[in-house]
Amino acid sequence: RRECPLAQLMDSETDMVRQIRALDSDMQTLVYENYNKFISATAISPSGMDSQCCLEDIPTVQEPHTDSARISATLQDRHERITKLAGVHALLRKLQFLFELPSRLTKCVELGAYGQAVRYQGRAQAVLQQYQHLPSFRAIQDDCQVITARLAQQLRQRFREGGSGAPEQAECVELLLALGEPAEELCEEFLAHARGRLEEELRSLEAELGPSPPAPDVLEFTDHGGSGFVGGLCQVAAAYQELFAAQGPAGAERLAAFARELGSRYFALVERRLAQEQGGGDNSLLVRALDRFHRRLRAPGALLAAVGLAEAATEIVERVARERLGHHLQGLRAAFLGCLTDVRQALAAPRVAGKEGPGLAELLANVASSILSHIKASLAAVHLFTAKEVSFSNKPYFRGEFCSQGVREGLIVGFIRSMCQTAQSFCDSPGEKGGATPPALLLLLSRLCLDYETATISYILTLTDEQFLVQDQFPVTPVSTLCAEARETARRLLTHYVKVQGLVISQMLRKSVETRDWLSTLEPRNVRAVMKRVVEDTTAIDVQVGLLYEEGVRKAQSSDSSKRTFSVYSSSRQQGRYAPSYTPSAPMDTNLLSNIQKLFSERIDVFSPVEFNKVSVLTGIIKISLKTLLECVRLRTFGRVGLQQVQVDCHFLQLYLWRFVADEELVHLLLDEVVASAALRCPDPVPMEPSVVEVICERG
Amino acid sequence: MEDDAPVIYGLEFQIHIIDFDDENNIINKNVLLHQAGEIWHISASPADRGVLATCYNRTSDSKVLTCAAVWRMPKELESGSHESPDDSSSTAQTLELLCHLDNTAHSNMACVVWEPMGDGKKIISLADNHILLWDLQESSSQAVLASSASLGGKGQLKFTSGRWSPHHNCTQVATANDTTLRGWDTRSMSQIYCIENAHGQLVRDLDFNPNKQYYLASCGDDCKVKFWDTRNVTEPVKTLEEHSHWVWNVRYNHSHDQLVLTGSSDSRVILSNMVSISSEPFGHLVDDDDISDQEDHRSEEKSKEPLQDNVIATYEEHEDSVYAVDWSSADPWLFASLSYDGRLVINRVPRALKYHILL
């Protein structure tokens, strides 16, 4: 006989029994299925046909069946015994395990094989629970509970010590969960622990922020933050979700709250760091740092979609981008003001004899190119934000609003507007008298604005639109509006220039009329020096304006300049006007005459807007000056000689000023008026012979 | 109503008294001879309609002296309704001199101002850099210098214009010299406020708001009209820049102070409606007792309309510089302007605006 272990025997026995049963049932099925055949067979047998063969078959079928029944019957007894024995054996083994459990657990705990211990405990738990009414089991259970408690405590201890990294902690938590520790409490502890570690990271980040120590650059900072804090947060979140998946929405909510709180603290730190960066000029580093920052937060963002870390990060990036734009706008403004200061200095610099300082045109070119290069630099700097490789560049903000509202409107249009405003502010300066702004600067700015209107604005905007493919529906300021603003600014500046320069000359003329005693003056021998000065200054202004503005059109009047007009001016018209009229008997005639004459001459708008050309500017200045002369003359009383002096002066002015103005008739009119007024203010009006006037003027 | 027009015709100086008959639209002119000299400034006594003061130039050999004197018109002209023939020269009458504002110490009288609403006894004259307060005694036949003050400082300071404030019991006078406005207390003859650089250039004229005690308007060669609150002298309350040349005159309407009249050497007269800084910023205030509720409601509605300062009209009848504008003292809707060429234009406030203000 073969030797077999009991268990194998038992197995083969049960196997056999099973087979027997299977056979049995097969047989029955066969019988049932062939029942009809049997019936028909019995029906046929009386007919005596094949009955013999059929009946002979039946016992052969029944034979194995009875054999098997017999065998199983003999084996039955044994089988039952064996089964019983095996059952007892298993039970004994279980009992043995139970009785040994406390010591085993103790051993496991001592050895630190917590996993094993937890598995044992898990196996025994149910049985002990079931049989706890038996005293012996009760004792074991109590022992086990004590040990398990110790185990749990040790696990917690280990968990709390936290010297080990997050994975081991996760293991601890897993074991504790298996021990049936309350999950909620564990969540709390787990998170509290994670918080401790993450706060450590935050503290170290904060230390880097510190007020005085040389902070690492922003890229390094975000790197630290990214690997330290964000990485940690990721681990925690992943582990938590794995461990406490069973906790359902409440657990997820807890994690979200945790992440939200720490995340916001992290963001606050990052923002503080970024704020330190605001003053800096290096955009590329900042953009790279922002890119890292943003990229890093995508992982936890995906893990914790509900917390909105990624969104918050994007928001921060957007904010920084906005602030950068503001910073660049400030930078551009400062650059513009710097340019103006340079121009002022250049204008104020004492001229070295023989060597002309930089001309106005040159200064203008310098200013224009300097501003343009600043604008381009700013554009290039902010363009980094939209570079393809930057992780946030495909966010809707950076694709749309940043380009159109931020860069185009905020930066470029904003700068051009502020430039116009700055320029206009020179027109409103309260110290009109002192003329704090050098006139040349006004002129230069006016030309600059005009250049912007004609070309630069559209160039800059085209450049911007090309670099930043503006593709959203926000309304943008059209080029034409900006151009109109620039033109208006240019016009105001030029008008103000005319006023200022006109005022300078006016003051000279005014002083010359007001301070002189016109009643007791000497016979005119010369043109007064002040008139020469006026002509000199006007010539200087003419040169100055000519540097920046085109000539402009003047009324074609005559090539033969002074002679002809002089004769009209001083002999026929003037004499006809006042010589016969100073008898008391005929006052009406004078008025009538002068009124009729005025009916045919157009009203002169003294301070009128100017056009962008030299002639118009000069016309404006001369108009203002001569009108002042006129009004001043009307406030004085002239002796005969005084009148003659005025005559000489006016003729001199007429000789030299006509060439500057658009319509020389205007100069004639005003000067006529001056002489006529002086004559009216003279008790003894005897005009000088035109020929004498002419001689004096030519001499002087 | 009368309007005095200083016009220089050769060597004969006249004062024209012009009667304007509103109902019949007839103008009458009476001419008074002012033999003392060429008149530069003229002002009528507030108490006695027959008395007026002038500043005039007296030319002697090679010197021009500006003096001031108080005169009385011939009795028959005072009535105003006196019918005079058209030919002015034949009926030219002479002013009766009451007294000189003695000018031995001070020459160059720039202007003379009467105490407003007073008894016609007090008069102030501005001479160079002095303010002289005169007491007229014995029915104006004698002028006694009561007190004076003078402007200290560098350079040749010279008053150009002055006004006597109708507020504060007539104790304040404002003067202009160069670009500066100053306020003086007539009791102590001391300066009470000073607006430096009130205008970019010379200040030509100023006027007090008749209804708001701290408000003052000024105008000058910078083509601007500025409105000041004398309690805050750092910047003007409002600035108008409508004229294209020096503004020579600014005048508040005597009863509706939102109406401001300015005359300029750009030959224009501009009537502005300065509602926002007037004493009636919300339109005419109507007493509750006088009107029914319905009307009250209507006026309330009207007051809600945003009232804006604007130019009502620009009058371009003058061909030459306008040197004087003033409101009629009898009819608040009537004003006159005078230009260099001797043209006097009398205008009315547009009817629509008049009703808008009244209703």
Automatic annotation (TrEMBL), chain A:
Pfam families: Dor1. Its main location: Golgi. One of its GO terms (biological process) is endocytic recycling. The keyword Coiled coil applies. It comes from the Eukaryota. The keyword Transcription regulation does not apply. It is found in: Golgi apparatus, trans-Golgi network; Recycling endosome. Coiled coil: none annotated. InterPro entries: COG8, Cullin_repeat-like_dom_sf, Vps51. GO terms for cellular component: cytosol; EARP complex; GARP complex; Golgi transport complex; membrane. Belongs to the VPS51 family. Involved in retrograde transport from early and late endosomes to the late Golgi. The GARP complex is required for the maintenance of protein retrieval from endosomes to the TGN, acid hydrolase sorting, lysosome function, endosomal cholesterol traffic and autophagy. Acts as component of the EARP complex that is involved in endocytic recycling. Component of the Golgi-associated retrograde protein (GARP) complex. Component of the endosome-associated retrograde protein (EARP) complex. This is Vacuolar protein sorting-associated protein 51 homolog. It comes from Macaca fascicularis (Crab-eating macaque).
From TrEMBL, chain B:
Its main location: Golgi. Residues 282-306 are annotated as: Disordered. SMART domains: WD40. Residues 294-306 have a biased composition (Basic and acidic residues). PROSITE patterns: WD_REPEATS_1, WD_REPEATS_2, WD_REPEATS_REGION. Keywords: Repeat, WD repeat. WD repeats lie at residues 196-232. It is found in: Golgi apparatus, trans-Golgi network. GO terms for biological process: protein ubiquitination; regulation of cellular localization; regulation of transport. InterPro entries: Beta-prop_EIPR1-like, EIPR1, WD40/YVTN_repeat-like_dom_sf, WD40_repeat_CS, WD40_rpt. The keyword Repeat applies. Gene3D superfamilies: YVTN repeat-like/Quinoprotein amine dehydrogenase. One of its GO terms (cellular component) is Golgi apparatus. Interacts with two multisubunit tethering complexes: EARP composed of VPS50, VPS51, VPS52 and VPS53 subunits and GARP complex composed of VPS51, VPS52, VPS53 and VPS54 subunits. Interacts with SNAP29. Belongs to the WD repeat EIPR1 family. This is EARP and GARP complex-interacting protein 1. It comes from Macaca fascicularis.
